[in-house]
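subagent[fold] <- orchestrator: predict structure for attached chain, return tokens only, no commentary.
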Amino acid sequence: MVIREYSVKDFRDIMEIDGEAFSPRNPVYDVYIYVTYGSDLLVADIGGKVVGYIAVMDIDRETSKIVSLAVKKEFRRKGIGTKLLSTAIERCKERGKKKIILEVRVSNYPAQNLYKKMGFKIVDVIPNYYQDGEDAYLMVLDLTQSTQEAPLS
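subagent[fold] -> orchestrator:
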């Protein structure tokens, strides 16, 4: 698997993944927003087939936002989401960002667990965030906290 920059030839694959993962939304509109306003649109590529993507947008000088992260159903639970997320986090650090934010459905436990594993913390609940009325958790990753170093012997 290779994590690489989005290419125009990836458009159909991303629309398919987005539609599968987020059925009530309009994938064409979403991908247009990512491509137009995104700071990073990365794809997970296996043998020339896009199996996942992450879209990140810069909010301001200090903050980035994960707009969307999705992996094709048959490729889930294989570390692809973790690899996409860790690559995006590293790129945000390289750009000098201090935090990354995102919203996630309160019912989306697999995504919440992935984000928590990567250091994100739930900081708020946004009532009726989604079109179907479901609430969202606002999660934040503080990039200024250094990772714990091993003690010197």
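orchestrator: received. Logging for downstream: The two ends are 37 Å apart (CA to CA). Residues 2-142 form a domain with the Aminopeptidase fold (CATH 3.40.630.30).
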